[in-house]
UniProtKB/TrEMBL annotation:
Family: Belongs to the peptidase S45 family.
Protein name: Penicillin acylase family protein
GO molecular function, one term: hydrolase activity
Origin species: Agaribacillus aureus
Enzyme class: hydrolase
Enzyme Commission numbers on file: 3.5.1.-
Length: 811
């Protein structure tokens, strides 16, 4: 009863927020309907006693499916055939996450205005996602999915299961968000699943700095640009160890140097969080206490509720797999079966390039390419807006891809026309890749499954019960000349086109390395001996080196050791930069209040523990220093790219002239000591202000203030704020204010698979459920839950909660 009352209180508070704060997210639903005691928001309250044994009659099933729920509300789905397995997965996932599934696909499809109405920011987002080609890419990929009879059958069985749940809904049982925003779910389709995968592709490969880099190059020149933005940072520790020998003959690539357009771009489109990344590693049995391989992985994404992942076990003849699934897509994305385990990190290869397009006339019916005028293709997007006439947006397509920038979108850039070439637009069948991966038994089958994986490019860590460990960097990678894709390119020249793709068998990989482990954390994948050009603007340089250092030192490793490493809080940036800052700090210019904070920094062990004051002081100081050091790149008129942290630390350590220490906004000539001291006093002033305004003690957990927000952030009562934990950006425990480990998993292979997992949320998408956010406390403490990996639905276990039976009513 207590849980129900708390749930109702939360829901009532949210309704008050909607009414009082006037959310600007569409119309408020009819209040009589919303407050109806039988069908309104009250009907969404749940307690653990709401989950009980039942038998559901579902047309569309071929036989009987048994779903065993454990105490974490993880469903273990047992079916007699693949059709029923994926039908049941679709039904069960929708039962717990329907609104999230549909909202994310509306987001990717550019259809949020249908829900929220006439809001300029929402319309802009809808236009952006259509213009960068998410629906276009989803349609292309779906064609390939449906050309394969296996993936076609699976994706449609999943959709039928989702629709079976949708058809069972009434006004009373609609998820609460539909009631709040006064709309209803529509039929689920295979296109929606394809859109979901493009939504993830955008999250993980939808960043580039081509236009900002072009601006920066045109302002500072090539020599300075190459110094400040090296392709590889010094001290590189690549994913594939430098001792690796390549066993293939590389394709020849033209290395013609072509002119870069002199464009200056005032504004650029919004891009996903630059910290979307991950850690993964696998350790050989030679380094473990059990003599069996152990695999660990934790993808880093936005911290949201409902959670991005939904844990599930899938069992039918030929498959017994468990792990994290994406609500809206069939199969397991990161997980294990009784023979192998795998996890992924973002590979951050540059697979998006921008081309400047020259049109023949204002109607844009033709564009210039290789000395002739070619016809364009026009796509008319009708964006429906709730309670208003639709918005018509015409997008021009060239052979490069959609023209994103034009007079009607990003008009501050004048009449510049930029087309986007992106591998996410190409046909692909990741659904079949995961279908095979879920069933793989060894390294050979693992590789066969990955051959179908195109976008977003990922680093797949692998471990097998037979003792193998491996890492494969997989995606569809453009074949480019040296330096191609770093800057805007002239779209009229064929030499600027991609020259094909790197053969899939040439993608970098390693099996059973001598050092006894494989690992990746979004760093540069290979050293300079790899024969193809590899580039990205955002490779990681710190988490990976810390992980490799620890794994190199460790012996007799246990699963508990791996869980602890996932929560490692050591701040390598601080370890490499703070001694330099302290050395150049002019203490004679400090006031007493400034000196009071130095003791914390000087005694700090560089670990971002939540109760410590020093991480907060360093974080604020480094941020202020970084902004002052690179003040040359503060420009409100032009989008510029700023140098990264590795190059900053290198320059303050080794640049004897300290070229960039002088502040351009002042007549004086500052040196490094000046800006180190100035940034320190500014940081302390801000911390003092924070202490005055905050009701909390100054420590890293309070200062960082991690929050796990609902997908509609304005629904604050459906969010969990102020989660106390350590870690931070560029730290193995990569938990920042709104971003971090979204699914921590550790798997020990052997005769009996043992696995542990946790994520920052809960299995239910219903804010009125006790399973909505119940994992967060465990996750924040760096703990894991043992995962129950069942072989039979009749197994007995203390952790079982209840059983559902799904059956065709005619049987």
């Amino acid at each position: 009863m207590k849980n129900i009352l708390l749930s109702l209180l939360t829901l009532a508070l949210t309704i008050s927020l909607v009414l009082v704060l006037n959310l600007n997210f569409g119309s408020i639903p009819p209040l009589g309907k919303l407050f109806d005691p039988f069908g309104g928001f009250w009907a969404n309250a749940e307690s653990k006693i709401s989950y009980k044994e039942d038998n559901l009659q579902l047309e569309g099933l071929e036989g009987k499916v048994t779903v065993v729920y454990d105490s974490l509300l993880i469903p273990h789905i047992f079916a007699d055939n693949d059709h029923d397995l994926y039908f049941a997965q679709g039904y069960i996932t929708a039962l717990h996450r329907l609104w999230q599934m549909e909202f994310q696909t509306h987001f990717a499809a550019g259809r949020l205005s249908e829900i929220f109405g006439d809001i300029p920011q929402v319309l802009r987002l809808d236009r952006l996602h259509r213009r960068i080609g998410l629906p276009y890419g989803a349609s292309n990929s779906l064609q390939m999915v449906e050309e394969n009879p296996v993936s076609k059958a699976a994706i449609h069985a999943y959709a039928d299961g989702v629709n079976a749940y949708i058809n069972s809904l009434s006004d009373k049982t609609l998820p609460i968000e539909y009631k709040l925003f006064n709309y209803k779910p529509e039929k689920w389709t295979a296109q929606k699943t394809s859109l979901l995968l493009k939504y993830m592709a955008n999250n993980l490969s939808g960043r580039d700095h081509d236009l900002e880099s072009t601006n920066t190059l045109n302002l500072i020149g090539k020599e300075a640009f190459d110094l400040l933005f090296p392709i590889r940072d010094k001290g590189l520790d690549p994913i594939i160890p430098s001792s690796t020998k390549w066993s293939f003959d590389a394709l020849e690539v033209s290395n013609d140097t072509l002119p870069i357009p002199g464009d200056i771009t005032a504004n650029v489109i919004e891009m996903p969080d630059p910290d979307n990344g991950s850690n993964n590693w696998a350790v050989s049995g030679r380094k473990t206490a059990s003599g069996k391989p152990i695999l660990a992985g934790d993808p880093h994404l936005g911290l949201n509720l409902p959670s991005i992942w939904f844990a599930v076990q899938l069992h039918s003849p030929g498959i017994n797999v468990m792990g994290a699934s994406l609500p809206g897509a069939m199969g397991v994305i990161i997980g294990f079966n009784d023979s192998i385990a795998w996890s992924v990190t973002n590979s951050r290869h540059d697979v998006r390039d921008w081309y400047k397009i020259k049109f023949r006339s204002p109607d844009k019916s033709e564009y210039f390419y290789e000395g002739e005028w070619r016809p364009t293709r026009k796509v008319i997007n009708i964006i429906n807006i709730r309670d208003k006439a639709p918005y018509i947006d015409t997008v021009i397509f060239t052979h490069h891809g959609p023209v994103v920038y034009d007079e009607s979108f990003m008009p501050d850039n004048g009449k510049q026309h930029y087309a986007l070439r992106w591998t996410a637009h190409d046909k692909s069948n990741e659904a079949y890749s995961f279908y095979l991966l879920n069933r793989a038994r060894n390294y050979k089958e693992f590789n066969k499954a990955l051959d179908y994986f195109v976008c977003p490019a990922q680093n797949f860590a692998f471990a097998a019960a037979d003792g193998d460990i491996a890492m494969r960097i997989q995606g569809k990678f453009p074949l480019k000349r040296q330096g191609q894709g770093k800057f805007l390119m002239d779209g009229s020249l064929a030499q600027n086109d991609w020259q094909g793709f790197i053969p899939v068998e040439h993608n970098a990989r390693i099996l059973n390395p001598e050092r006894g482990f494989v690992s990746s954390a979004n760093q540069f994948p290979v050293d300079s001996t790899y024969p193809y050009f590899v580039y990205d603007c955002n490779f990681e340089h710190y988490r990976n080196r810390r992980i490799n250092s620890r794994l190199s030192e460790m012996e007799a490793i246990t699963a508990k050791n791996m869980q602890e490493l996932q929560s490692d809080n050591f701040n390598l940036i601080a370890a490499e930069s703070l001694p330099i800052l302290l050395k150049h700090l002019n203490r004679e210019k400090l006031e007493q209040k400034d000196l009071a904070y130095l003791a914390s920094l000087e005694s700090w062990n560089f670990s971002n523990e939540p109760m410590l004051e020093a991480p907060a002081i360093f974080n604020r100081w480094w941020s202020k220093f970084f902004n002052l050091y690179w003040d040359e790149f503060n420009n409100d008129e032009v989008q510029l790219r700023r140098p990264g942290t590795p190059q900053t630390i290198y320059l303050i350590r080794y640049d004897s002239v300290q070229t960039y220490a002088d502040l351009k906004a002042t007549p004086e000539v500052e040196n490094l000591s000046d800006i180190v001291t100035q940034s320190y006093t500014a940081a302390i002033s801000e911390l003092e202000k924070w202490k005055l305004e905050s009701v909390h003690e100054l420590n890293w957990g309070n200062y960082k203030y991690t929050s796990i927000n609902h997908l509609v952030p304005q629904l604050s009562a459906f969010s969990v704020k102020g989660v106390i934990n350590g870690g931070g950006k560029h730290i193995v425990n990569a938990t920042s204010a709104r971003h971090g480990p979204s699914w921590r998993m550790v798997v020990e292979l052997g005769d009996e698979v043992k696995a542990w997992g946790v994520y920052p949320g809960g299995q239910s998408g219903n804010p009125g459920s006790p399973f909505y956010s119940n994992f967060i406390d465990t996750w924040s403490k760096g703990k894991h839950y043992p995962l129950l990996f069942m072989k039979d639905p009749l197994e007995k276990s203390e952790s079982l909660l209840f059983v559902q039976t799904l059956q065709n009513p005619t049987l």
